[in-house]
Structure to design on (376 residues):
C-alpha cells in the first residue's frame, strides 16, 4: 500500500470470513482554481502521456506544458508577446473586461502602458499629452492609483511595441510558403530630405491578402537607381525575405529602370527569382493612367485654368463666398449643396472633383459676374 491508500477491513457477505480489502479514499487535497489572466487566451488540454498538463493557445493553436509546480504560466505569458494571431491591445481589453465581471479590477501597469502606447500611435497623439494638467486630473479621477508615464517613457514604450510587432511580422513573412510582392516609392520632403517606403503584399495562412509597410525610412542622396537598389536589397536582407520575392512595382521614373535592372541581377545571382526574373518588374498602372490623363487634359488646358482661377478667386476671401451664395436667391431651382474644391497636381481624380463641383453652378458664376465688377 502506498501512503495515499488506507487499508480497511470489510466483511464481504453474511457469515463469510473477514478479508482485508484495500479501499482508495478520495484525495482530500483541493485543486486550486486557475486565477491567472493568461488563461483567457489558453485552453487546458489535460495531462499528456508523460502526466504533464498541456495547454493550447486559442490564437495560433500551439501547445505548451503548463500547470503544477514545475510548469507555471511564465511560458504562456512570454508566448502572448510573440503570438501572431492575438493582437496585444486585445489582451489588455480582454483582461479588463474579465476582471470587471469578477468585480475586482486590478490594473497591471505593464498592460496599461502598452495600451496607452497603442492609443498614442493610433490617434497620432503627441508624447506630451501626459503632461497636460486636465488629462492627468481626468486619469486621476478615473483611477487614483494609476501612475501615468512620462513622455520619455511613452516614447520608449512605443519603440518597444514597434520592435515587438516587427518581430511578429518577420516571423509571419519567414513562415509563409508563398512568395511576396513589393511596392516602393521615393519622396522628397519640403526640407529636401528623401524618404523611401517599402510595402509587402502577401497571402497569409488564412488566404487573406495582407499589405504591410516594412520600412518608411530616410534615404540619403544621391537618389540614383544603383543607390535605390542597394537600399531595397539591404532592407530585404534585414527582413530575411530576399529569397522570397516574386515582383516589385515601381512608377515610371527613369532611375527606377536602373534600380530594377541592378536589383534583379543581384537577386538572380542568389537564384531566388522565378523564371529568371521574367515577371519581376511591374509598372505602376495608376501612375501610367495619371500620365495619360495629364497629357489628354492639355487639350482643354485653357478652360480648366479659367475654372481653377474662378474658384481660387472665390475662396480667397469669405466675403466673396457669401456674395456668391447670395446669387442663388436670384436663380430659381438652384441651391448651394456641394462645396467648391480645388484640384491637386499629383492626383488627377481631384481634377474631376473640381470640375464636377464647378459645373453645377455655371449659372451662378454668370450671375456673380454681373454683380461683382472685379470678377472676370
Amino acid at each position: 500500500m502506498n501512503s495515499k491508500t488506507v487499508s480497511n477491513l470489510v466483511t464481504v457477505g453474511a457469515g463469510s470470513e473477514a478479508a482485508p480489502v484495500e479501499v482508495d479514499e478520495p484525495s482530500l487535497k483541493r485543486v486550486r482554481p486557475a486565477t491567472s489572466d493568461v488563461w483567457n487566451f489558453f485552453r487546458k488540454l489535460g495531462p499528456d502521456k508523460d502526466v504533464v498538463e498541456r495547454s493550447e493557445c486559442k490564437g495560433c493553436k500551439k501547445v505548451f506544458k503548463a500547470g503544477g509546480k514545475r510548469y507555471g504560466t511564465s511560458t504562456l505569458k512570454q508566448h502572448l508577446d510573440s503570438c501572431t494571431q492575438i493582437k496585444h491591445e486585445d489582451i489588455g481589453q480582454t483582461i479588463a473586461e474579465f476582471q470587471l465581471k469578477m468585480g475586482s479590477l486590478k490594473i497591471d501597469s505593464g498592460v496599461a502602458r502598452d495600451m496607452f502606447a497603442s492609443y498614442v500611435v493610433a490617434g497620432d497623439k503627441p508624447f506630451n499629452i501626459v503632461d497636460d494638467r486636465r488629462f492627468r486630473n481626468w486619469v486621476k479621477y478615473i483611477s487614483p492609483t494609476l501612475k501615468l508615464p512620462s513622455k520619455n517613457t511613452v516614447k520608449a514604450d512605443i519603440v518597444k511595441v514597434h520592435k515587438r510587432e516587427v518581430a511578429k511580422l518577420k516571423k509571419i513573412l519567414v513562415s509563409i510558403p508563398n512568395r511576396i510582392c513589393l511596392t516602393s516609392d521615393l519622396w522628397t520632403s519640403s526640407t529636401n530630405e528623401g524618404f523611401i517606403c517599402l510595402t509587402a503584399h502577401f497571402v497569409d495562412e488564412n488566404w487573406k491578402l495582407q499589405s504591410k509597410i516594412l520600412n518608411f525610412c530616410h534615404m540619403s542622396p544621391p537618389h540614383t537607381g544603383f543607390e535605390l537598389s542597394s537600399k531595397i536589397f539591404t532592407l530585404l536582407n534585414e527582413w530575411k525575405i530576399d529569397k522570397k520575392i516574386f515582383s516589385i512595382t515601381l512608377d515610371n521614373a527613369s532611375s527606377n529602370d536602373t534600380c530594377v535592372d541592378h536589383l534583379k541581377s543581384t537577386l538572380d545571382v542568389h537564384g531566388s527569382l522565378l523564371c529568371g526574373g521574367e515577371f519581376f518588374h511591374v509598372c505602376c498602372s495608376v501612375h501610367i493612367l495619371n500620365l495619360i490623363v495629364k497629357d489628354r487634359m492639355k487639350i482643354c488646358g485653357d478652360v480648366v485654368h479659367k475654372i481653377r482661377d474662378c474658384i481660387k478667386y472665390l475662396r480667397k476671401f469669405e466675403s466673396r463666398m457669401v456674395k456668391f451664395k447670395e446669387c442663388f436667391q436670384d436663380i430659381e431651382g438652384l441651391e448651394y449643396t456641394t462645396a467648391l474644391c480645388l484640384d491637386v497636381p499629383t492626383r488627377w481624380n481631384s481634377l474631376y472633383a473640381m470640375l464636377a463641383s464647378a459645373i453645377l453652378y455655371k449659372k451662378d458664376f454668370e450671375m456673380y459676374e454681373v454683380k461683382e465688377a472685379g470678377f472676370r
